[in-house]
Each structure stands twice: as C-alpha cells, then as structure tokens.
Design brief:
globular, single chain, binds adenosine monophosphate, 18% strand, alpha+beta
Length: 142
C-alpha cells in the first residue's frame, strides 16, 4: 500500500494550517463539518494519529476514535432532528477515498430524502456554519 503522506488536507487541518468549521477536538481526534455535504449536518471525525485509512491504522487509533464517532453521531442526529445516521468510511481511491488520512463520515439521514452525491458540490457556507453551531450545542448538552 502507498505510504502515508502528511501533505494531505486533513493533516493540515489537524496542524491548524488551514481553516475548518470545527465541532470538537481532543488529544486523539478532531471533528469538522464537511465542505461538500451530502446531507444536512454532514461532518467528519478525523483521528490525529497519521494513517492513510482503516487498512494501516493501529488498533489503538481505531479503539480510541470509535467512541468519538459515536459521540458525534448522537449529537449530529439530535441537532439536525434526523431520523437516522449513517457512518461511512472509504479505503483507497477505488473505494471512493479522496483524502488520504483516515476519517469517518457522519451522515444524518431523513425519511424519504436520499443522500446527495459524494464530493459533488461545495455546500453553502452560512448553512454549514448554522448546522455546526447546532451540533456544538448538542455536544455540550450530551
Ligand atoms: P473521502 O476521502 O472520499 O472519504 O472524503 C473526503 C471528504 O472530505 C469529502 O466528503 C470532502 O467533501 C471532504 N473535504 C475535502 N476537503 C475538505 C476540507 N478542507 N474541509 C472539510 N471537508 C473537506
């Protein structure tokens, strides 16, 4: 498998070199809004430990990040009044991966509304910021 390259965009977000709509951060992971949302409240949980994807991630990274994925899934579902929540994670380009630093998609789902296409279009910045604020509040309330 190709080696991890720390020039990827999520490594830069973790280092604070480029801006993001941040929802949560601790020593192990950061959660941000996705800039090309497939649904209302689409966000990403990104472990800080460097790995390309699930295939080269350590068990420790995976064990640490899953409770954070669950925390964000609960907060995003409640903040968006969603009917369900999907978790997605892609490994290598053939499987749909476009950013080569491990991350988990949190996708609130609404009855009768299909997901938008993956990576199709940039979202409205103001709407994303509004959704982010609601998710941050739900995290505090949890
Ligand atoms: P994938 O690697 O295919 O699992 O998905 C990468 C995701 O990252 C896509 O949904 C993109 O919309 C999203 N994305 C790419 N660049 C940024 C960024 N600078 N900030 C937030 N999300 C991003």
């Amino acid at each position: 498998m190709t080696a991890y390259d720390d020039g990827n965009i999520f490594a830069k977000i973790i280092k604070g070199e480029i801006p993001s709509e941040k929802l949560y951060e601790d020593q192990a992971a950061v959660a941000i809004m996705d800039i090309m949302p497939q649904t209302k409240g689409h966000c990403l949980v990104i472990p800080k430990a460097p790995s390309r994807n699930l295939l080269d991630a350590s068990d420790e990274t995976l064990a640490t990040v899953m409770p954070i994925v669950a925390k964000l899934a609960r907060a995003a579902k409640s903040a968006m009044n969603a009917d369900g929540v999907r978790i997605a994670q892609f490994n290598e380009a053939t499987a749909g991966q476009t950013v080569f630093h491990l991350h988990f998609h949190i996708l609130p789902m609404f009855d009768g509304i299909p997901l938008g296409q993956h990576g199709e279009a940039s979202g409205d910045k103001a709407a994303i910021a509004e959704q982010a604020e609601k998710i941050r509040k739900a995290l505090v309330a949890a």
